[in-house]
Amino acid sequence: MVVSISIVVAPTRGYVEPLIGVKEGDWIEYTVSITGPTSAPAHNITWFRIEILTIEEAAFKANVSVRNVNGTLSSSDWKFNFTEGQVEGWVIIPANLGVGYSFYDSSKPANITIMGEEQKNVAGATRTITHASDSIRPIKEWDKATGVYTYSVEHPKNFTVISQAIATNIWSPQSKGLNLTAFNALVAISIVSAVLVAFGLVVTRRNRIRKLPLSHSSQGKIAVLTILLVVLVIIGAIAFFPFSEVGLSFAEINLIMQTLWTGLILVSIWFRFKGNCFVHEITMLIAICALLVSFSAVLFMGPLTSSSAFSSSPSRLVINSLHAIFSIPAIFFGVWLVTLWRPGSALFAAKSKRIAQLTMIFWIPSYVIGVLDFIILHTTFFG
Description:
It is a single chain. The protein is an alpha+beta fold and about 375 residues long. A hairpin with a 4-residue loop joins strand 3 and strand 4. The strands form 2 sheets. Strands 4-3-2-1-11-10-9-8-7 form a 9-stranded antiparallel sheet, with no helix packed on it. A two-stranded antiparallel sheet has the order 5-6. About 40% of the residues lie in helices and about 20% in strands. The chain has 2 domains: about 140 residues; about 200 residues, no CATH class.
C-alpha cells in the first residue's frame, strides 16, 4: 500500500553513502494496533517480527513474520536496497542519519529528510531516536544507530496502524539507575517488609502473645478489608505510579514485585509454622491478591499480549516454559490455600497442610526460575 505522490523536497545537506546498520541474525519484534475498517486479511495483525537473513553491499534480505488476530502465523521475505531506494515503507533506512540528512524512497519517488532526534527508552534501553513524516505516516521513528524503525503511526486508506518495538537482540536492555522516586519506593517496600517480620517476631515469640484476641466475626471482616485494600492499592499504583520515570525497566520492576510477594509468602508460612493461622491467612491474602491483580493488569495492558515475544528464541522458550510449569500450579495452590481458611477454624491447619506444602514446592522453584529468566534474558551475566 504505497501511494505515489509528487512533492517538493527542501535542500538537504547533500548526498551521504547509505550505510547498513543491521547484521545477519538481528531481529526486532513489534506489537500492532489497528483501528478502523480493514477488509484485507493481511491488515488484521497484532504482532510481527523482522529478522535479517543476508547482507550484500547496500542490499539485504529480511524475513517478516506476522501474527493475525485469529492467531495464525505467516511470513515472507522482503528485499531492501538503499542504493536503489528500496526501504519497504521506511521499515529500515540507512544508519546514522542525523537531522537534515535524507534517504531515498523509490516508491514515491523522493528524498525523505530526517526532521529531528531525541533520546527515548525503547525495548528496555535508552536509544537515540530520529523521526520523519509524510501524508501517510505522520509519525515514523527509527533507532539512529541501526536505521530500524521503533514506532509508527500510519494512515493507509481509511484505517490507522500503530506499531511499537517491544523486544530485540540488536541492543541489550539496560538499567538506567534509580532516581529519587524509585529510591523512595524501594525504601517503602523495605520498611513494610521489615515491619511485617518484626511483627511476626513479637506475635510468635515464646511467653508472649501467640494469637491475636479477635473474635471470629472480626477476623472475617479483617480478611475482607484486606482483600479490598490490596486490590485498591495495586490498582491505584498501576494507574498513578510513574513507572516510566523511576529509571527501571519493566523486567526490573517485575523482579522487585515478585521478590516482595515471595518474601511475603515465606513470612506467611513462618506464621503458620508458629501456629498463628490468622496472621498466616492475612499475609497470604496480601501476597496472592497483589499477585493476581498485578498479573491481570499486565495481561490486559500490554507486554504479554503477544506470546511470540516470549518464544522467539530457544532460551526464551525453555525458560518461560519452565516458569509456566511451576508458576501456574503455585498460583493455583496459593489461591486454594487462602480459600480453605475459615475464621476460628480448628481444622484449617490439618486440612490445608498438604496444600501449603504444594504451594511452597511450586512457588520457590517458580521464583528461582524467574530470577534466572531475568539474568539470562535481561543481563549480560552469562555473556
